[in-house]
Structure formats: C-alpha cells, structure tokens
Amino acid sequence: MYRVLVIQDRSPFVAPMCTVLEEVGLVAYHETPMQLFESGRWSDPVDLLILDLEPKEIPPNMRGWDILEMFMDFNHAGTEPAVVVMTESNEAPSRLLGNIHAVSAYLLKPVRTGELLSTVFQVLGLEGAPPVWG
C-alpha cells in the first residue's frame, strides 16, 4: 500500500484531496509546513510527497523548495519518495529548480481531482486508469 504525504497549508482542499487519494487505495495524510517542523515526522516513510511550493504557514526566510530539501535531508526511510509539487507558477526558473530537486511532476493550482489522480497513478507506476472524477 502506497503512503502519500501532502504538505500544504490548512485549506478547504486538503481534506478532500486526501479523501480522494484514500478512495483509490492509498494511505494519505496531511501536514502543514509548521506541523512538520513541530512533529519531527521528517523520517516517516512515504512513497510520494505532494508539496505546495507557495505555503503561507512557513517559517520566516523559507520557501517551498527549502521544505523539500529538508525533507530529503532528514528522510532516513531508505529510499527517496517521488515528489509532485503544486504551484501557481509554470515559469522556467521554477522548472529548473524542479529538475535539480528531481521533481517527478508539477500540478498547477487550482488542481483538479482528475489531474491529481492521473499524476499520482503515473508517478507511482500504478496500473490501470484512475477513476474518472470531475
């Protein structure tokens, strides 16, 4: 069973996102950036990390890319998870940073459910098509 960690601020979209992921058989949980710092769950094993690159609740002088670097530095679960980033920007500098950080896929906000599932299935190498969602 695949484990998915969603790092995003508290928003009305996070709970439905995790619910949809669970409905297709994944184990999904959510942490805000601040909860991640407070909980110390950096080393929990995950197969897929979905990261919001523009979080509002973040320590001063940090960016979403910094959270990704720290997660990868402290992730001692054995293998690095696949990474999907959610962003409002599709600009070249952001894509370049994504290549440096081995990002598997980008999701432009607002993220549609079908696009989320299609991307997750592709990145995790799951067979079959994801369920059709609106």
What are the defining features of this structure?
single chain; 134 residues; alpha/beta; Rossmann fold; five-stranded parallel sheet; globular
Describe the protein's topology.
Blueprint: E1 3-7, H1 14-23, E2 27-31, H2 33-39, E3 48-52, H3 64-74, E4 82-87, H4 92-100, E5 105-108, H5 113-124
Parallel strand pairs: 1-2, 1-3, 3-4, 4-5
How many independent structural domains?
1
Low-confidence stretches: none
SSE class: alpha/beta
The global form is globular
- So, CATH architecture? 3-Layer(aba) Sandwich
So how many helices?
Answer: 5
Spatial strand sequence of the major β-sheet: 2-1-3-4-5
> What fraction of the residues are assigned to beta strands by DSSP?
15-25%
H-E order: EHEHEHEHEH
Average pLDDT metric: 83
Radius of gyration: 14 Å
CATH topology: Rossmann fold
Question: Could you give me the name of the CATH homologous superfamily?
Answer: Response regulator
Q: Could you give the distance between the termini?
A: 25 Å
